[in-house]
Amino acid sequence: MEILLPLLVGILFASGLYLILHRHFFKLILGVILFGLGTNLFLFVIGRLTRGNTAIIDNGDKMAAEPFADPVPQALLLTAIVIGFGIQAFAIVLIKRVYQAFGTNDLDDLDKTDKIQEE
């Protein structure tokens, strides 16, 4: 299991980057989503999330009793999920607007940006 999760992170990053480099908008959005999932899983693996007690120090103790779950990677993971949703929503709206303005979903056809149609 310890080798499976880092391998899965690498596959998600590689497939996300591969899809981001494509020329179609739909594949670009899927690549951004996979890249975000890879980032979240990377934070999960790096944080070594374990089952255990809360990281609260009792009165009179100097350190938390082992095993305890570290709250910092969990907070970073929640923040990364929220930021990922925001980026995905922005990308979807931006790509929809570009498709409405130019009528194409291929990035190679967007070489003439001087001809934006006014509505």
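Second entry:
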Amino acid sequence: MFDLSISEIAIIAIIAVVVIGPTELPRALATAGKWMAKARGVMGNFRTGLDAMVREAELQEMEKKWASENDRIMKEHPAVPDDSIVSENQMEPLDGPPAEVSKPIENPPEPPPAGDPKP
């Protein structure tokens, strides 16, 4: 992250122990950790807000593209007025089923017995 080597970290730790003292060092590290957590939280909120703004800008750009493409398509293929619809394209209702089909079968044929061999 900060590109510190082990020797640099050791020098910082020794200076911290000498300046702060071994008894106050844990409290100082806890305070530094709290500040780091707050800084990370602020950066996370900033990043989230920035991502939302970028996403919104991209959506607006896509909406403009879609609107222009829709306008182009509508100009190339104008809508047909209702008066000029050809009657061949309209659907016509079908007649009902034939009368003899609607009658139920009174005596259905019986299946052959299972024991009979087939010729």
